[in-house]
Known about the structure:
The complex is a heterodimer. Chain A has helices at about 10-35, 40-45, 45-60, 65-100, 105-120, 125-135, 140-165, 170-175, 180-215, 225-230, 235-265. By secondary structure, chain A is mainly alpha-helical. In chain B, strand 1 and strand 2 form a beta hairpin. In chain B, the strands form two sheets. Chain B has a six-stranded mixed sheet with strand order 6-7-8-3-9-10, sandwiched between helices. Chain B has a four-stranded antiparallel sheet with strand order 2-1-4-5, covered by helices on one side. Classes of the chains: A mainly alpha, B alpha/beta. Chain A: GO terms for molecular function: ABC-type phosphonate transporter activity.
Amino acid sequence: MSNRIPPKPKSPAKVVKRIIIAIAVIALYVWTITSVNIDWGKIFSQRTIDNFDRIIPKFFDPAFGETGEILIKMVETIFIAYTGSLAAAIIAIPLAFLCATNMVRNKFLNTIGMWILGAVRAFPEIILAIIFVAAVGPNPFAGVLAIAIGSTGMLGKLYSEVIEGIDMHIIEAMEASGANKLQILFYGIMPQVLPEFLSYAIYRFEIDVRASSVLGIVGAGGIGTLIHFAYSNRNWDEVGMILLVIIVTVTIIDQISSFIRRRLV
Amino acid sequence: MIEFKNLSLTYPNGTKGLKNINIKINEGEFVVIVGLSGAGKSTFIRSINRLVTPTEGELVVDGENILNHNGKSLRELRKKVGMIFQSYNLVKRSTVLKNVISGRLGYTGTLKSIFNMFPKEDMELAYENLKRVNIEEKLYNRADELSGGQQQRVSIARVLTQKPKVILADEPVASLDPPTSHQVMKYLKQINQEDNITTIVNLHFIDMAMEYADRIIGMRAGEVVYDGPASEVTEQTFEEIYGRAIREEDMRGGEENE
């Protein structure tokens, strides 16, 4: 007779489940908001407005006189990011192969690789920087190490996903022609994964420039050192200038990197 | 010469891929294996270069039982037995030349091949083989810039560069249109006749099997149900192999017009 869609079957159990989930989510929000003690009165108080009044205008009146010194430190920051991400781009390769289930057919080894990468990813760069400053002293090398280790976690994970996505038929064809494992790696696997590896490494460099800007705050070199000094002395106009340089540099690097990455893949 | 002696293959999940196969394929023969999909054609062909390993019986290639080969001896076997695939299996981002020269990997030392140091004769052989399949002008193009038929010709050149004694082709024309299919089969046939390379091709197109094969082997459910010269095969034979009436989809049609 008619062509109506049959009604969706209703189950009371599902409705109850949804109500419980909704209550739980709302309760979680109420709990978190009440326990961080938001003082609404303080946010809109005269004092806050006065403080902002003192600092914000200085940001927009940056200390151009300091440009030279700031640029030198900015370049150092980029070098830290570059060296660190380059090291990570290389260290991540063997770890990625270890994690890739189509390369190492051993669940146990795959899991170990995943754990290593996961453990490394769990550390924020700034914590790694504190550790390395303690280990090698307060200099840019500590920053390089922090960036290198911090980036390896992410790159290794992304690389291993690239490796797992390759066309295994090509590997089969090479096996069928009598090539050995190393030859298959260089002729069958590398051409498939290298452009993506490179693209991710450049993307990570982009992130590392931002990350290494703050490493100096804990003494690991780069422009963060200047932020630390300027902030300690309440030189807000200098902080403003540093921020300006960081913003311009990061924007330029983002543009260049996305241009290169578009052409790569 | 290739000889299957009481050869069976049971997959780990219990499926029987091959059931007690006894067949002898002579040097220089052009054999076409026909059968519906799932009949065991692929398993049959892949046993010969040990991409799959039969579980019982003996498989003799070039005077050796290959079932226990591993590591080095397996690579030696595979140097002698070239293979062509349905999906061409070229490295898409590499050039045509690099794909073809990769056929020489089995003959080249690991370090030399990593640094791309192939002997001059090998490079010339690769170019020569590209000429044989009329695709030499695409030498430095990336493989993914080529059409399907062109890619399959490159993969034929790659297999030739391997200087094999046997060529296995697993559904080499299944992804191609009728004229290109005939072109690819003609190259295979020509190579078989000129170089006396034993050629074993999986096909499910009846008309192509009858046109190009010297000998047809019919398979159904992992068993050989027909084996005879192509000249004696009729549509009736195919109905027996397939276990059903012939349909239009079993024909490739479209003879290449030159």
